[in-house]
Amino acid sequence: MANIQFGLTDHLEGPRDRSSVQIYDEVSELVKLADRLGVRYAWFTEHHAHIHEGHLPTPLLFAVHMLGQTRRIRLGTAVICLNLHHPLDAAEQTAVADVLSRGRLAPGFGSGSTPREFELFGAAETGEDERHARFEQALEIIRSVWSGAFDQAEPSGQQAYFAIPPHQPLPVASSELWKRTWIAVNSAGSAGIAGRLGLNMLFSHLRTPAQYREYSAVYRRAGGTGLIAANRPVFIGPDDATAWSRAEPALRILWRRFRAEGKIPADTPEPESAKELVHHPINFIVGGPESVARQIQALHDEAPFDVANVEVRWAGLDHETVSDSLRRLMEQVAPMLQH
């Protein structure tokens, strides 16, 4: 068996006409429960103008808010879309959050965002090579700012995208913060960046085990030695039959949403069987505790990882049902996945 830690990711999604206060309160309760149950991480995602149904444009604020309501869980961002923000501003805000967290901040950064979000920020979309070059340089700036002595050297082999005068930033972040930092990896290029800079890797649930293996190999070749987190939507019921029955409405909502968003071809007929709804690109794990443990173990066997990063909250599942699923994950599934 693998010795797998667990993380929780939430996009704070909900209909536009639902109160953001209600959504924030609901996710806060889940994170407090996760803390009591021994979940290692809780990450929150950046979305603007209700893109991807998200109600949270500033995930770092939510992470800091949860610091005062939890005791052990590491709180962070999965992710801050760094191409929408100046790296000096991102560095200073995360440094303050790190000081406040006393070692519990787990920041995550990503290089991508949607075309609509680029438009909102007046930012130009670029090709992948330039986007990754800007992203890597921004991360190097963040690392330097966190150290408290910024003296940006000329980048080797790439354009200088940011002009920041040498200065002595405050506050100085913990020397361990860089080791607690994660990069969203959805391509071989971003895996190489994570490896070269010595950061941890976060995978999306939209990726296959074969892609996980590919990115991990690139990461290790680039010198990466940090943690790897695989991501999957998960629902655990008391037994398999009950789990499928309770999850089916959520699965159908998600499947239709993915088809509307183009992740599933528009002419694809909706499957009659609920079990046909969970395949790629949805990649949803459903079942009773023993079944879910086997599925997580099988994913680990195909593409080894350190953290099972789960998404438990979906449209079609009420708050108490989601809370029960999270309890079963940590009280019944997690012990099956330890040495």
Characterization of the model:
The protein has 339 residues and is α/β, with parallel strands linked by helices. Helix content is 43%, strand content 14%. The model has no long low-confidence stretch (mean pLDDT 95).
Could you list some keywords that capture this structure?
globular; 339 residues; 43% helix; 11-stranded parallel beta sheet; alpha/beta
Q: What is the helix content?
A: 40-55%
N- to C-terminal separation? 6 Å
* Average predicted confidence as pLDDT: 95
Number of helices: 10
Topology:
Layout lengths: L4 E6 L9 H18 L3 E4 L14 H9 L6 E4 L2 E2 L5 H15 L3 E2 L1 E3 L4 H6 L7 H20 L34 E4 L2 H10 L2 E4 L5 H13 L6 E9 L3 H22 L23 E3 L1 H14 L4 E5 L7 H18 L3
Parallel strand pairs: 1-2, 1-11, 2-3, 3-5, 4-6, 6-7, 7-8, 8-9, 9-10, 9-11
Quick gist of this model?
Helices cover 43% and strands 14% of the residues. It has 339 residues and is α/β, with parallel strands linked by helices.
